Amino acid sequence: MDAIFCPKCGLERTKNSIFCPRCGFNFNEISIKNNKSDYQKQKEQFEKLTPEQKEQLEKLINYFSPESINRKIFKNIPDLDKIIDVLNDKYGVKFADILEINPVANKSRTYTVITKEHKEGYEISIGDEDIEVKTFKYNKIKDPMLAGILSFITPGLGQIYTGHIKRGLVVFLVLFMSAFLIPTIPIIGFILFVIFYIANIVDATKCARAINYGTKLKSLNHWHIDRGV
């Protein structure tokens, strides 16, 4: 790092010092002037652009904005605009702050929404005339993606990671036993193995979500839990 000298008396600045010990000059004024200088340079460069270049630059910035990215992620949610409006109006939640929107199983037009702060979740039920919103506590204790990856590597490992040890062992045994069917009945055995393998990964993510949502998992023959996670 280059040495910094006081512009008034020429004394070299000591490490982390704010004021010059000789003349009392505030060294923070140097960084403020530099920041203003950089801003002026950027402004001058922007002013040199043609109207077409400015328009392209604004489009590029808007394309990669958090709101635009979220709209691409949640484009398959049919009631997206209504969800955004009700959360913004009632709770001041901005669209860019939304992390997850999940349809609730067995409930028409009902969704759970998790924000990036992970402090509170919202269950939104959209009717023909009104919209009902319920809040619930949400703590990201276990990572659903990590749970899915672990079960992809070793069946049942994701369930064990979330604390569902018995469930993980059962899943592992089911996959282990189904693998032995492949030499006997190749086509059916392979299809069953693939189905159980994919279900094992999905179930691991749901185990993690159950911990985070504070809900109870149903038995392994139900592939959904409360709040649709």
Question: Summed up, what is this model?
Answer:
With 229 residues, the protein is α+β, with helices and mostly antiparallel strands. It has helices at 28-47, 51-63, 66-73, 80-91, 144-153, 157-161, 165-179, 181-184, 186-213, and strands at 98-103, 110-115, 120-126, 131-137. The protein has 3 domains: 28-62; 76-137; 144-228, no CATH class.
Main sheet?
A: 4 strands, antiparallel
Spatial strand order of the main sheet: 1-2-3-4
Query: Termini distance?
Result: 52 Å
> How much of the polypeptide forms β-strand, as a percent range?
5-15%
What oligomeric arrangement do these chains adopt?
single chain
Q: What is the number of beta strands?
A: 4
Class computed from helices, strands and strand pairing:
alpha+beta
Total number of domains: 3
Percent helix: 40-55%
> What is the general shape?
elongated
Helices, by number, come to 9
**Compute the gyration radius: what is it?**
28 Å
H/E element string? HHHHEEEEHHHHH
Question: Poorly predicted ranges (pLDDT <50, ≥5 residues)?
Answer: 222-229
Question: Could you report the average pLDDT, rounded to the nearest whole number?
Answer: 79
Topology at a glance:
Layout: H1 28-47, H2 51-63, H3 66-73, H4 80-91, E1 98-103, E2 110-115, E3 120-126, E4 131-137, H5 144-153, H6 157-161, H7 165-179, H8 181-184, H9 186-213
Antiparallel strand pairs: 1-2, 2-3, 3-4
Helix pairs in contact: 5-9, 7-9
